Structure prediction request, 633 residues.
Amino acid sequence: MDDGPTLEQIAQGDGLALCAAGPWTAGFAPVLERIVADAETLTGSRPNIFIDVSQISKLDTFGAWLIERLRRGLTHGNVEAKIAGLSANYASLVDEVRRVPAAEPTAARQNALITLLEDIGRNVVGFGTTLTDLIGMLGAVLAASGRVLRHPRSFRLTSTVHHLEQVCWRAVPIIVLITFLIGCIISQQGIFHFRKFGADIFVVDMLGVLVLREIGVLLVAIMVAGRSGSAYTAELGSMKMREEIDALRTMGFDPVEVLILPRMLALVIALPILAFLGAMAALYGGGLVAWLYGGVQPEAFLIRLRDAISIDHFVVGMIKAPVMAAVIGIVACVEGLAVQGSAESLGQRTTSSVVKGIFFVIVMDGVFAIFFATIGM
Amino acid sequence: MAGDRSDPIIRVHDVSVQFGVTKVLDGLSLDVKRGEILGFVGPSGAGKSVLTRTIIGLVPKIAGSIEVFGVDLDAADESARRAIERRWGVLFQQGALFSSLNVRQNIQFPVREYLNVSQRLLDEITIAKLGMVGLRPEVADRYPSELSGGMIKRVALARALALDPELVFLDEPTSGLDPIGAGDFDDLVRTLQRTLGLTVFMVTHDLDSLHTACDRIAVLGNGKIIAAGSMADMLASSHPWLRAYFHGKRARAVVG
Prediction:
């Protein structure tokens, strides 16, 4: 094994010879950098400087560059350092690095406060553009639906059915399981607290209103945003990255019609179905807990449910579902199409698709609550 | 390293690879000698990339053994494998640049991992490597999605060469380059082989590359090596696929 690299200084009359020896390779980079830095400071005012490289046992790009750096460091004014003893093997490598331009210093870092303010500004503007993008996408989807209504043959049934399977059929087990558990928990908590007032039976009222009107649809919408909204964004985003969407466009297809409309439609159909199944599972779970934990007989539970809950509660829930589906779908598609070239951007867009999707679902829910309260439903 | 020039740097012995029921490689054996540039050709879909990926350990084999730098890769433990991986560089067909890092970071990534090098030297070496593959320093701050296909190839080569490897695998390095760029690329590979003592394993369809850059050519067919030798041997062969390949319309312009 070789010893470490060395650089020996030998005075020759009015000149100076720097004899490099040993392995000048990447593995010894820290040592080499120090050697070179030391040598650069010791130049003095000698008119002749030679760097003798004939004793170098092994040279790679790192070593060759450091010799070149040394040569440049020793060259100033009318003094030019020369490289001597270059073997034919290494000559082309040294020539190669000689052509390298001097590295320019990297840009200085900005003030943290300015960066923070800039970020805030960008986010505010970004929120505005998000809204216009969403409205733009809504318009594009409606326009595409209009075209499909006029030319029903251009409707992509296979694709819609495929997405329906993905977002609806395959989501049933997890949605039913989670809403069932939530129903159980609401019921248990209700009974636990209402029992103090001897009002056990009112748990049925609470469960009915909460599940049919709010939790059923809201919880399912949030789960769909996390499960299917993210999938849509990732699919569309990777298609965008690999220019598949551009390819569609050049073939004369409208990406909104081909990719987005079937997805939107599948989601708008799926969410009411899932919300309904979720509500039933939650009621079942709640009833089960009321019976086993609270001693409310199933017959009593059903009679109370029929009295306490009007059809309005159920209708309100069902009206909200497709609108929420549309919001999730539009957000997911806008984010998907906004993906840039990098894997990182795909991740960011998928995250923001879910976050924005859930946010807008909750905002919509609040708007609906005000609306239905005003019309007395 | 001061090894004997004739000892094989890669020794593939009796390797079989199977995907489902299709046997892609069937008892393939191939030696790559130290310091040579081996051109690896074969019909599309014959398994050239599969062999490359099998050697570098991305595709599992069902039989056979592979030795690189004299070490059996199956027997090697984690640290031995790592030491070997540090000594080779791979240029993937699509470049496989890290899309969330810019060009500078892409090239510096392996260096940073394996070597203790100051930031200043890293930046200078990056510019040097970019220069070697014929790119200007301005490219360093761009992201892979902002590069042309040929530039991606060049940056990927710069990254493969970042650690000054002894062995590089090039998967179709000149496809997608203009003829001048491809010619420069061949010269570059030649130069690097001469200066760094590089061994090059090059999957290619570029007859110019085979003619000007490669010392030896190996031909893959039916999961085996059907011929290996110099360009002259290839031209003299009577194998029908070789005749079609090296005496076809496109070949005549190159080899005359």
About this structure: Chain A has a mean pLDDT of 87. Chain A touches chain B through 31 residues (CB under 8 Å).
